[in-house]
## 1
Amino acid sequence: MTVLGEGALIDLHVHSTASDGTLPPSAVVAAAAVAGLDVMALTDHDTLAGWDEAFAACPSGLTVVPGLELSCVYTVGGQRPISVHLLGYLVDPQHPGLVAELSRLRTERRRRGEKIVEKLVAAGYPITWDRVREFADGGSIGRPHVGRALVEAGVVASVDEAFTELLSAAGPFYVRKVDVDAFAGVQLITAAGGVSVFAHPAAGRRGRVVDEAAIAALAEAGLAGIEVDHPDHLPVERERLRVLAADLGLVATGSSDFHGSNKVNRLGQHTTEPSAYRDLMAGAWGSRPYVG
Ligand code: AMP
Ligand code: ZN
Ligand code: FE
Ligand code: FE
């Protein structure tokens, strides 16, 4: 691994057009260099499809950490499952179990995206599934693609407004997808040679969040870190999570969750300490960071 100085800028959560970001992987790595990042992890939802393009376009001086954001759920006895996003870094892209599960999740995203569109169309909103698929452009389909169709149709002014008005998990047009059990997700990432980090664990604006006991249980199962500094966390939540990470022996990370123009988050908006980055990557063997 390259030696990183104390001031190195490390952003471990970034999306591209391989899922619901608006910049192709080649443009994301270029933008990361312009933003002054030293390390950027590409973490598209349920796909590794952006890796090769990001490596090929990686500017000199930037390190690209290949990753993903795995759609999971945490279920406690009888209650409604809580959505959990697991960031996985340096997994083996050929691992058969991981490849199969990602393929299943992308199929599930198409099925569920089409159902959401059917509900919206039935309620009179002038969008089409074909247009949503065009926005996804072969990538992992998500609600932001439906949001862009709603913006184009003049129903809402922004993707953010599409979420608050129509697409939120509490709204009438929401359709659940069948995600991976969070413990199975941690085990799958570990089995594929990667390390897992619980993304935005306190992002309550998106829906219900798990309690500290759940994070402790996932840590027992092999979770390596939690995202502490994230745009959807209030300062008080960040401080609580920093203490929790230390108590549980988890690595505390920081990142932007950049999605291009689908979200306001800026590349490098939050960053990870170089020592935390080193500790985290030391546990992975499935693939290597690409040094440009
Ligand atoms: P899905 O993966 O289809 O369930 O859609 C959730 C994704 O939409 C998340 O990964 C978020 O990054 C994104 N998202 C959530 N809320 C918003 C919002 N208010 N504006 C834009 N994107 C959002
Ligand atoms: Zn996303
Ligand atoms: Fe997420
Ligand atoms: Fe994300």
Note: The mean pLDDT is 96.
## 2
Amino acid sequence: MSNIGSYEERLRGFDWSIGEKELGYKKGDKINIGWYCSDRVCQMGKASKLALVWENHEGHVKKFTYNDIRQLSNTFASLLCGLGLKPGERVCIFMDKVPELYISFLGILKMGGIAQPLFSAFGDESLHTRLSNAETAAILTQKKHVAKVRKIREQLPQLKHIIVVDSEGSPLKEREVAFDMERVPRVDDWKAYESTAETPSVLHYTSGTTGQPKGAQHVHYSLIAQYLTTKWVLDVKDEDIYWCTADPGWVTGTSYGIIGPWANGVTQVVLDAGFGAEKWYAFVERHKVTVWYSAPTAIRLLMKEGKEPVAKYDMSSLRHLCSVGEPLNAEAVIWSKEAFGLPFHDTFWQTETGSIVITNYPGMPIKPGSMGKPFPGITATVVNPKTFEPINNPGTVGLIALRPGWPSMFRTYWKNEETYRSKFKNGWYICGDRASIDADGYFWFVGRDDDVINTGGHLVGPFEIESALLEHQAVAESAAIGKPDPVNMEVVKAFVALKPGFAPSDDLDLEIMNFIRKKLSPLAMPQEIEFVKSLPKTRSGKIMRRLLRAQEWGEPIGDVSTLENE
Ligand code: PRX
């Protein structure tokens, strides 16, 4: 029997107070996610239960009980307070998927700080953009990434402390602090900051069509939705071994790679290593993973390897599979049923929504290719893109719209209230995605409604890439779009017009690609560069990415009446 039981019954009797009650929270109480994910679990009699089993690419394993993560997160909180950091200040986590990442996340919340996780593969410019926007006061990192921080620290006057969690053997510089959580004395007793429901908790940067990435601001009350969706959608139970493959630099890795599982008191496993089909199967076998949360790109990579490697491993521990981040194609659902005897359940949500909003529940009939139905407590529909009125015609495509008000909904974009407000129309939060709803109430994803590129489940903003391209000495103007890719759904393609004196060549092509990879990230690196004489622009001078994208995807070009050189 799944945790959700009958979807229809849950819908009828639903109120978010179900989650509040289970967590022992009452309106007006203190609520600190760091405390809920460690101290409370210990108080519930699970102090010696494993919270985290971590393994790296060399097969080195570390295990932490709930009491360990309670004490170690206290130790991080105490360190941060000792450095003079104050509640409300932003503390960035810039690490690979090492135990310190997961545990310091709780520590930051326990001292009242706002946790700002950033993907460790980000280059110095991606890092700078986000740290400078958030006016981040401290950053926790590893020695392998500290050079990127050093490169930009003089441009970040607000950045007071750089904490290196594994600095042994490498000399540190001014403003840098060495902190090895496994060597310093543990802090057993720590009074968590008395945050309340609306106290800011996590700041996750996400990309849009225009401008630089925006910080989606979450609050401690988000816990209620993250807890309940983990329980009902991911269906975790006390005895489960849960594996979320996402990196906490992205929202899946925090909402469902830290908060959700730990608030539920389950054991989670983390593999700090790159992708490899057999590597992953061996990991499932070794740790007897029961619940697995992954992404379509990873599933497609597994599919590419075929079913033979699956048969080499004992995958019988698996009980429930879920996916997020991009459209989960019907073939992937069917393949997983054949390969693992279980379908992947699609879940749809965003950085902004903080938790799963539309999904296939355990036990609910899956229509392969559909995202499923709204989580109880979420009012979701598709609206007409002009009037923002709900479309009541099954199969008609509109914009996915959610009625604001669930606990984990973001509260604003950091220092960008105007863009935040622009996301609401006619009383709906507009996700920026197109979909239709069928006669049974199932949602079918169609595509993004903007120019954001979704590569392997990661959103990349064209503006950020174009700005970085312009910093290259040869580039006069540029446009970045997503081009179709069989595995990653989309990859970045850049159109580049060169400055006089520069000519297209394979060397220049490679040089520009690497320039972006180093400055931004491997995800943002164009997989293809097309050199052009000029770019299509509107009469007001705006580059028409829409046109380039339509050409690339073989879609109708649409209205070009505003085209400059028409
Ligand atoms: O376009 C949708 C796509 O990813 C976007 C959200 O990306 P992000 O904020 O980075 O969060 C990703 C993980 C929650 C959405 O607006 N997306 C997410 N899940 C799905 C999806 N597209 C299709 N199907 C999904 N299940």
Note: The chain has two domains: 7-189+197-434, 453-553.
## 3
Amino acid sequence: MPRSPQPPPFAASPSPNVSDEALREAARHLLSGGLIGMPTETVYGLAADATNGLAVAAIYAAKGRPSFNPLICHVDGPEMAAACARIDARALELMDRFWPGPLSLVLPRSDTCPVSELATAGLSSIAVRSPAHPVALELIRQVGRPLAAPSANRSEELSPTTARHVIEGLGERAPMVLDGGTCLAGIESTIVSLIGPDPVMLRPGAVTRHEIEQIIGPLSTPHSSSGVISPGMMRRHYAPRARLRLNATTVGAGEAFLAFGPSPASIIATLNLSESSRLDEAAANLFSMLRELDSKFEAIAIAPIPNEGLGEGINDRIKRASAHLFEDGV
Ligand code: TXA
Ligand code: MG
């Protein structure tokens, strides 16, 4: 099968401002059961040694996250993944093409998997990914174990794309945050389940459906398949306080307008996700712009965003951020 163009060079980001000593200290902290705010190319994660049940329990407590919602285990490559999960040919091809990078694979847990049952919420499957951020990769290497890391926000709040967001959101719950700069991708990893015969896209994200389908063929959606779901795909998620109005082509009194591309002549954009209509730029700006508008406005009108390529992941986040009325969440 012909190879598609390489994904954006997440790993080639500028050298982050994290000293060797800070990295060593973070690794020691993780090995003694502590939590670390860890930069990745998607969003910041709240990391713990995935093999240490107590450390993993501290993640759930710090986030206020229900413990039925499993965590992604971050590995330094396919070899560490193979110690945790049963890897088939499809998984190998995807790892070869997208790792390190923003693709999480849900695979059967291996019999000898060292990861705590709490991290996988007692499921017989496990989500693994190798992050394309030099700080995250080096941290995993130094710890020598998989790191369980959900996004480093309180449950249901907006995901953090800077170290400052983590500190503002988690405060003392994340006593040490490594500042690896602003996350380049800006939305979370794409999650693909390879548990059944047909691959299922559980969450759209920073690798597009098309890129994945070029490697392993059609992806089904959780609805059309036989009950494979991601426990974390709660309808309400990423919730700002402000009311959101989607596909907006007008702006009401007191509303901020979050534009994408050129705005209609009658509207002045409060912020623009991407003036040049670039979806990668919009993804990178999404959470920080929502945060900024949320701190200043009661209501935010968001311009339509095409639902293709990275737009699928962006629209998924916006829809769930606007789902206040549908579900209270936990
Ligand atoms: O980009 C990302 O994926 C970020 C960074 C930090 O790596 N992490 C992240 O983690 O978004 P979190 O916890 O916010 O989202 C993980 C999602 C949840 O929806 C969870 O239900 C799902 O992954 N998940 C984890 N293990 C699973 C499994 N075994 N089966 C199905 N879904 C799983
Ligand atoms: Mg999250």
Note: The first strand starts at residue 36 and ends at 38.
